[in-house]
Design goal:
46% helix; Isopropylmalate Dehydrogenase; 2 domains; alpha/beta; 9 helices; 258 residues
């Protein structure tokens, strides 16, 4: 079950150092918002991607948030700095109904094949298990089960969705292939795996920018350090900062617990 409120509360009470990419005026405004919320953490501003990632690598920061830094540049620098073959992100979302869930992939060049989507689902489940979230998984595809004769792309997507769900169930997870029924996927499950990154990105933008849903940030789930990716169009990064701090605190606590 996804419980964002707990993570944000832990983050609000944390005394960690969290870095964020923002211009000076926006940084000052965010500091004011966090102070008004009685946050104890120390916020550090950066205007260059290399400086933010270097500070995280050298442990001058406990966690980091992308903020308004360019996405492609930030992800490229993260891959280089932390020796990652790929970047895996899972967006932490809340629908207008109040249902909280994770969505992945959300990058337009992510989740292009069955293997990468399966790896992403496994990484997300493992990452958030360390903060106490035991999640069921919904796998989406580009049609209903009866749509296999509506073209090779639809047929292939349905086959991949079934196989991903079956593999996750084989891991002992509660996993279901929900086909194209995203409304049922969100209602019944905690982690929703989109058919590909373009679809996931469109779902994210529709939910957040059109339908009034909340986007807390998208942690990178295949690295030890906590880095929360964010949209440059986000009006307020307070939640993303508290999410980063809370995830860091709870993951560290899980490592200390025998």
């Amino acid at each position: 079950m996804v419980n964002v409120k707990k993570v944000l509360e832990v983050g609000r009470g944390s005394s960690l150092r969290v870095g964020i990419g923002l211009p000076p005026e926006s940084f000052t405004q965010l500091q004011g918002r966090l102070k008004a919320q009685r946050c104890r953490l120390t916020l550090v501003g950066f205007e260059e991607v290399k400086d933010l990632t270097a500070a995280l690598r050298e442990r001058r920061l406990d966690a980091a948030v992308r903020g308004t830094l360019p996405s492609s540049q930030a992800l490229r620098e993260l891959r280089r700095t932390f020796h990652l073959d790929t970047i895996m992100r899972a967006a932490v979302l809340e629908a207008a109904s109040g249902k909280q869930f994770l969505l992945a992939p959300v990058g337009i060049d992510e989740g292009t094949d069955k293997e990468s989507r399966l790896a992403l689902a496994r990484a997300a489940v493992s990452y958030f298990a360390s903060v106490g979230w035991k999640m069921s998984v919904a796998v989406l595809s580009k049609g209903r089960a009866e749509d296999t004769d509506r073209g090779p792309e639809i047929r292939s997507s349905l086959k991949d969705g079934e196989e991903i769900a079956r593999a996750l169930a084989g891991d002992g997870l509660a996993a279901e292939h929900c086909a194209i029924l995203v409304e049922e996927a969100v209602e019944r499950h905690d982690l929703v795996i989109a058919p590909d990154g373009v679809t996931g990105n469109l779902m994210f933008r529709t939910l957040h920018f059109i339908c009034g849903g909340r986007a807390y940030g998208a942690p990178i789930v295949n690295m030890d350090e906590v880095f929360v990716d964010t949209s440059r169009a986000k009006a307020d990064y307070s939640d993303a900062v508290k999410l980063a701090a809370g995830l860091t605190e709870l993951r560290a606590k899980a490592l200390r617990t025998p």
